[in-house]
Predict the 3D structure of the following.
Amino acid sequence: MHWLSRWPQAAAPRIPRRGWNRRFALAYETFEAQRPRAGSLARRFGLALALLGALSSVSAAPAAPPLTTQEPLSDTVWQRMAGRSWHAKAGCPNRADLVLLRVPYHDFDGRERIGQMIVGKAVAATVGKIFDEIYRTDFRIFSIRPVDDFEGDDQASMAANNSSAFNCRAMTGGTGLSAHAQGLAIDINPAQNPYVKGAKTEPASATALDQPAERAAAKDIGLIRPDGPVVAIFGKHGWKWGGTWTSLKDYQHFSSTGR
Ligand SMILES: [Zn+2]
């Protein structure tokens, strides 16, 4: 394995807020997003070009905010999904119907990061716009990693306060396939935005934030508010929020299907 190919496998790298390291980090992210073949001469040449580009922009204005990019599922990503978020059973989408997004966000410490999210190809461009707009607000996201990093276990992903999209699984508390199964739903900051049905709150750590009055009074970072920017941005692009449901509340959940 080429040493450079190890970095993108790790948790999202930090991007410095300013200076040369920021330029190189952003250039590297852009280069990674284009994903030439590992170890090839073209890959090394491409990286050299990307770093030269960073050098030559020395007199340019401050770097523009990074934008979400999308790419087909690589063999590595697909093999990691099999048996975790994807299963060879009726209702799960084809590989070609899903894409990997690299999503810029601000973490709970305000640092810029690039997350990875798998969504339906049909909604990928819209989801990219949504996260590019969220990035330009002060809203913070704890982490964005495919649920495969949690063995496809939604409970484990929620317990880790992870935000994710695709998972070919049943609806929470139901038997039909979830909108997540087509990559048409996204959960954000579950620890601040729980799923609440009757006496059940998931994740269980979020019971202090499961009632409307508690949520209105709370100051927690990453809490999604009815009148806040996240609901407004998703709504502008036609996505519905589970926080408006009446039979139950799913404060972390947005979907293009309304379910
Ligand atoms: Zn959800």
